[in-house]
Amino acid sequence: MKERTLTIIKPECVSQKHIGDIIQRIEKAGFEILGIRMVHLSPEEAKQFYLVHKERPFYGDLVNYMSSGKVVVVVLEKENCVEAFRKFIGSTNPEEAEPGTIRKDFGTNIQNNCVHASDSPENARTEISFFFSQRDLILNQ
Ligand code: CMP
Probe ligand 1: pick from 5, 50, 92, 127, max atoms within 8 Å of CB? Predict the structure, then answer.
């Protein structure tokens, strides 16, 4: 069954002009783009988006980083999309990511690990609705 996920191209990849490279690799891997936009998150928005991590020691740094510059948020669709995309991007820590993955090739450390990806179908729905209305996505169905 087709499923959706949300990915965010993180600030360093945007400022280093890797948007095109990353999108091209995502598309070539068979993920369909249903929605895409560039945003500069406020610290409050980043806090809200990453609320599930609020007890983690890296929460403050993550919020600062994700609100430090423009990011590109993308809704993707594919069979088994959440799991397939997480496998495609590689491990959270780019140093441990498999060769040929985008986190290995474009990530520099665990915080700037190239892209965010939803970790479950339920979280994907919440994260997609954080940035996109149903109306934004319906034209692409
Ligand atoms: P992301 O997919 O955006 O989801 C949460 C982010 O927290 C994760 O990618 C990492 O960039 C960041 N992070 C920072 N430190 C850690 C850590 N020790 N373990 C997991 N995630 C971390």
Answer: 92
